[in-house]
Structure formats: C-alpha cells, structure tokens
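Researcher:
Attend to token order:
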Amino acid sequence: METFILILCILAAVLVSSFISRFIPRISTPLVQIVLGAVMALLPIFPRMRLDPELFMVLFIAPLLYYEAHTINKVELLKGLRSSLSLAIGLAALTMLMVGVILHAAWPMFPLAAAMALGAALGPTDAVAVSSLGESADLTPDEHSILAGESLFNDATGVIGFQFAILATVTGSFSLPQALGEFFVEFVGGIGFGLIMGFVVNWLFESARRLGWETTTTRILLELFLPFLIYMVGQNILHVSGILAVVSTGLLVRFDHTGVGPNTSKANIVSSSVWKVLSFSLNGAVFVLLGMLLPAAMGTSWRDRRVSNWMLVATITLVCLTVIVLRFIWTASVLIFTKDHETGSRPKITSKLLRSAAVMTFGGPKGTITLSLALTIPYMTDDGSAFPMRSELIFVAAGVIIVTLVLANFALPLLAPSQNSEVPAQQVEKSIKVLRGTVRELSSRITDENRLAIQHVIKQYNHRIAKLKSRIGQYSPKDFQDLQVQTMEWEQDYMEERLSRIEEAQDLLEERLKSKDASIEQAPASAQPATEAEPSTEAETVADRDADAQLIDRRSERGDDQDELLNLRSQEQAARRILSTISGSLFHLDRGGELRWRAYTARRRLRGLLHSQFHRLKHLTQPIDKDRVFVAGRHLQAEMNHFLIEKLYSELGKGRFKTEDLLNTIINHQMIESSAEGKTEYAGMPAVRDQVEEAKREGYAIELGQIQDMVESGEISRTTARKMRRNVYVMQVDADSAL
C-alpha cells in the first residue's frame, strides 16, 4: 500500500506540474517537476523512497528510449550519426578520464578510480531532458538530431565505464584490455541483438496483419510489452547492453508504417495517443523521482561536519566547469571537422558555428541516469573498509545535475530563442497545395446529382486551407469579414434597386386601375338597356351587347390588376423586411469602431425608414396576409441569392478577396439556393448523406495521389510525405467512425 500511495503521489505531482508550467512558461517543466519532488521528499506526509537502479532502468529508461528511438527522424539521425557517436563514446570517455584526473589532482582525498567513476556517471546526457528542453528552444534539425542521437547511445558508455571504475575502486585492480573487450562485447552485442529483434518484430506484426489476427488491443499491448522484454533479455540473459538493444530495436521497427486502410490507421492513431500519454507520465515521473532523491543524496554530506561545505561547493563548481568546457571544445571540434552534406567542404569558424557549439553544450544536461548510477556506489570495498568519499561523490553528482539543468533552462532560450512555429512554413504551403489540387479535382467531378454533396466536401477543404494559412500568418479572419461586409452591401444595393422597381410597377398599376375604374363608372351612360316604351332596334341591341362584353372584360382586367397589385405590395413588404435585416446586420458588424462606418450605416437605415413611411402614407391599404408576404420574400431571396452567386464568381481572379473565402461564400449561397428550390438539408437526406461520405473518400484518395505525385517529382521528402499521409489517415478514420 505504501508503494501504491507513492505512485499516486508521483502521478499527482506530474499532473500538477503540467498546470504550473502554464503560468511560468520561462521555467521548463522538468525543473518544476524536480522542485515538486524535492518538496514531497521534505514533507513528512509523503512516504520515503529508495531507488533500485536496475528497476529504474527497466521501468523508466527502457520504454522512454524505445519511444525516442522509434519517433526520431531517421534521415537526420543518419546524417549526424558520426557526430552523435563521437559525443556518445569519445566525449563520454574523455569526460570520465578528465573529471577523474582533475578532481584527484585538486583534492587527493578523492581516489583516482572513484573520481573516474563520478566522471563516468556524468558522461550520459538525459534523453528525457534533451527532448523536453528542445521544445522550449529553436534547435536546428542537425543540432536536435545530434543531441538526440547522443542521448540514445551514450548511456551504454557511461554505464560500462562506471562499472569498471567502481570495480577498480572496490578490488584495487584494473585491466584495460579486459575493460575494452567487455565494452566491445556489450556495445556491439547490444546493437546486434536489437537489430535482430527489430527484424523479428517487423515480421511478426506484418504477418499478423496480413493474416487478419491484428486488433488494436493486441497491437498496443504487444508494443508496450516490447521494450521491457528486449531490455531484460539483453541485460540479464545475453549480458549485453539492454539500453542499446532497446534503442536499436526502436530505430529499426517499421510495422506501423506499413499497410494502408482504416483499421491500420486507427491502430496507429491509438498507439500514438497511448505512447504520448505514457511518455509524458514516465518523463514527469523521472524528474519527480530525481527531485525526491536529491535532498537525501545531498543532505548527508552537507550535514557531515568532517567535510567543509565550501569544499563541496568548490568541487561542484570545478566539476561543472570541467564538464562544460570539455563539451564545448569537443562539440566545436566536431562541427569544424564535419563536412557539409551538400558542398563537401568544412565550415569556417564563425560566430554562428560557435553559437551552435554552445547550444549543443548546454543542450546536454545530466539527469536521472547520472544520479541512479551514483546511488549504486557500494558502501564497502572488498577489504571491508568504507567506500572512499561515497556521500561526497553522490553530493557532487546531484549538484552537477542541478547546475546543468538550470543552465540548459535559461541558456538555451537565449542562444536559440523559440520561434513558436509548430510546423515549418514550407511544409504548410505544400499541404495547402495538396488541398487546392484536391478541390480542383473534386470540382471537375460535380454533376447535377452530386452537386450538393461535393459542394459540402469542398467547403470543408476550404476551411482546412484557411486554418493552415492562419498558422503561417497568410490568413486573417478580417479578410473574410471584409468579404461578408461587401456581400451584404451587394445584397443591400440589389434589394434597394429591386424595391425601387417594385414601387415603380406599383405606381403604374395603380394609375391604370384608376383609369379603368373611371371607364367602368362611365360605361352605363353610353350603354343603357332598352325600355318597354321605347323598344330598341336590332342595331342598338347589338351595340349594348358589345358594351356589356367590354365592361365585363374591363372588370376582369381590373380584377387581374388588383391581384397583381396585391402581389406587388406583398413583394414590397417582404423587400422592406429583408432590407431592414441587412441594414441591422451591417450596423452591428464590428468594423474596428469606425465612426464613419457607423454614421454611414445609420444614414442608410434612416433613409430606408423614411422612404418606407412615406410610401405607406401614399398608399394606404388594408394589411396583407403574412403567408403571402412570406412567399414573396422567399422568391425575392432566391433572386437575390442568384445575383450574389454571379457577383461572387465575377470576383474570382481579381485579387480583391482570398480565393478560399470567395469559394466558401459561393458554396454557402449555392446550398441556400438548393434549399430554396425545395431541397432539404443534406443531413436529413440519406441519399445525399451517402453521397457526402463517398465524396469524402474520393477526396482522401485524391489527396494521397497528390502527395505521391509530389514525392515522385521531388517536391517533398518522404518524411514530409509520411506526416501528410498520416493526416489523411486520421481523416479517413474520422469518416469511417461517422459511418
């Protein structure tokens, strides 16, 4: 139960650190987690903890290094592999030697072998810290790949060197040929075992997928189980470097990059999500554990009155200077003697090169592996005496960890300030090009049957393009707002002109009705019926009949005109309502608080209101049925919508508005037009909904084809294409989930 409570406390600290980091972005999350761990260790309410280094390596370091190796950019890693191995082997060995010699020379109380053990523990950089700090600084791809490659391979060098230094201190003897032989076996054997396991794992997963045995659950569980199995078999059974075996397997496995389809895409997405959560949890737990171990590791020596505290501080300062200076000289030499991949020439010593060397110097902080190795220093030697300066060595190791982490936190952002760009602009532009090509191809496939469905899908693509453009500063919501304002102004102008024509037609019709009413009133005087006193002649009877027929015709025409006048008055009322709505929308639009804009819209609203009142006073009529006004409004809106579509099409290519904004607006009005013609919303029509899903699948296939064409033409790299395809797979899974 105590262990379970401790685990819950560590996870709670990791969770709290993620919230605290939002309020203090200048302090990296690892430092926040270390402080939380130290606070937990100092408070009596939290259980005490003792670290088992072997359990720590298999439980935390193995899965983290596997995930780091699997997700690292393999192309960039291969480019900087020579430099990474130089730092991982050469610099680690030099650090072990020079720290031991300098520390022993400054304070002979530190035996040479014990001091070299400290130097070996300080050789490995912390892969977790490198990955975390890289997010707060803008490292170049070469710098990031070299640092990441170093952190993957230098653990084995540090562990093996530390073991031999401790063995020499405990037994009092050391054989260089034996040490080199065992180092070669562990180093090469670990890499070889990892490569073999990489081939086996690829074959196993691909065979299971081909036979239909793979499920998301079994895939995730086997993948999580993999790093623990490889580490334990390599370390405990084959006696090779388990860390290198895990790293080699992670670099080689590729089963998640093979196979195409919704099931594979879904498994990849779930796997990525699980590993991200696990990686964040383990990363945080590593630094919280480090913080919990530091007070106890440093407190014993600090309270020991036999050793001067000033001497301990001076020792930490000397060792830190030795480690940092050696690392700067080595990394600068590596950069100077590394030939450029394109020109094949060595770079000149410039301020940029020295800055890059400084970035890589401070970008290699020490971490939990250093402290876990220091804590494994035995208490006794073979002759029964106490291990010399054990507490002091642990104190110095802990102090160097704190100093290098603090320097990395504050120096890296100054040397390589973050540009806050999640995705390179060039990659975003390539993605936009793919989406535009997909929109063009989908537009060419529009027919009368699938028009509504493809228009809906094109609208979604245009939204994706707008989001991508906003990420690189090429899109502003204000541009779309300007188009909306212009569209409503076009609507207002059209409806005002339409209302003017309606009023003119209404005036003409009323004048005609008045003349017809006058002619009807005069008709009886010229066509009186015959009386009994004066019998009418046959000619008079025919004339009366003609007059009666003409009167009936005039009355019929008058009835038609009255019906037409009623229609015009319905259209007039509907037009005024539409104008009022448009004017209100324009008035309340945010135009940056411009007084001129407010005055302009208010003036147009007032003019329309006065004109409406004058027309009502001029034509006093009975109120018109609301249904009749509604029908007239639907017809007017359809006519106005058709006019707007033609107007928007005419704007394409002029450059006044963004093409994506124009297309989105056109599609919106086309869907409104389809609805006005009697079609319902597509979500309520099973046939149209099926067409939408089919159009989505066509779009994804077109996207994949566009990406493949760009790869074959050399426009994008295979790494970039892999990321772009992954986005398409995510969309495919989303579409299949909707179905």
In short: The chain has a mean pLDDT of 75. The two ends are 46 Å apart (CA to CA).
